Amino acid sequence: MAKLEILEFPDPRLREPGKTIEQVDDKLRALIDDMFETMYAADGCGLAATQVNIQKRLFIMDFSSDQEEPLVFINPEITPLTEEPSEFGEGCLSVPGFYENLNRPNRIKVKALNRDGEEFEAEFEGLPAVCIQHENDHLDGRLFVDYLSKFKRDRIRKKLEKNQRLAAGR
Ligand code: NI
């Protein structure tokens, strides 16, 4: 297994939409294992392939406190089941250090393939439903900062660009 580099906003590669996955094979499962290692090391609860510069429709999650409930969503299709919004503070490993309250539908249905390539359907409510919508947005090149005002988004972008320059020693 290997830890992967997580792209950070405003990296343009985060804007590229993911392609449908045609084959769930050992190569894909190796990527999934690397993504879990990367997510756990970064203390995150969700990670999309887009964030590690792989333009494929795949994301992973784990809401448990001790890394015991790994969830894999391949080619996910999401249907909102309610218009009732749910407000949560959202953060993102690609937007480190920033948390903002957003509203998203509170209940959703997801159809996807698991790591064995088997189709499953499940309903989620509250925080997991919000996280799934957040991760699915990554597969369309969308970030949670896109839902904020331009003023707030620009402020976050400038701070992150500054941090990135400092980290690169420029
Ligand atoms: Ni994210």
Structure, described:
The radius of gyration is 16 Å and the shape is globular. It has 170 residues and is of the alpha+beta class. Helices cover 28% and strands 25% of the residues. It has helices at 26-41, 127-139, 150-167, and strands at residues 46-48, 58-61, 71-80, 85-90, 100-105, 107-113, 119-125. The chain has a five-stranded antiparallel β-sheet with strand order 1-2-3-6-7. Strands 4-5 form a two-stranded antiparallel sheet. A hairpin with a 5-residue loop joins strand 6 and strand 7 (119-125). The structure holds nickel (II) ion. Residues 92-94, 134, 138 line the site of nickel (II) ion.
Question: How are the SSEs placed, and which strands pair?
Answer:
Blueprint: H1 26-41, E1 46-48, E2 58-61, E3 71-80, E4 85-90, E5 100-105, E6 107-113, E7 119-125, H2 127-139, H3 150-167
Antiparallel strand pairs: 1-2, 2-3, 3-6, 4-5, 6-7
Bound molecules: nickel (II) ion.
Nickel (II) ion binds at residues 92-94, 134, 138.
In short:
The chain has helices at residues 26-41, 127-139, 150-167, and strands at residues 46-48, 58-61, 71-80, 85-90, 100-105, 107-113, 119-125.
Total beta strand runs = 7
- The gross shape turns out to be globular
Q: Mean pLDDT score, rounded?
A: 95
What level of helicity do the residues show?
25-40%
How many angstroms does the end-to-end distance come to?
31 Å
Largest sheet: 5 strands, antiparallel
Topology as a string of helices (H) and strands (E): HEEEEEEEHH
Could you list the spans in which at least 5 consecutive residues all have pLDDT below 50?
none
- Per DSSP, the total helix count is 3
Q: Give Rg in angstroms.
A: 16 Å
Kindly name the structural category.
alpha+beta
Strand order of the largest sheet: 1-2-3-6-7
Bound molecules: nickel (II) ion
Strand content: 25-35%
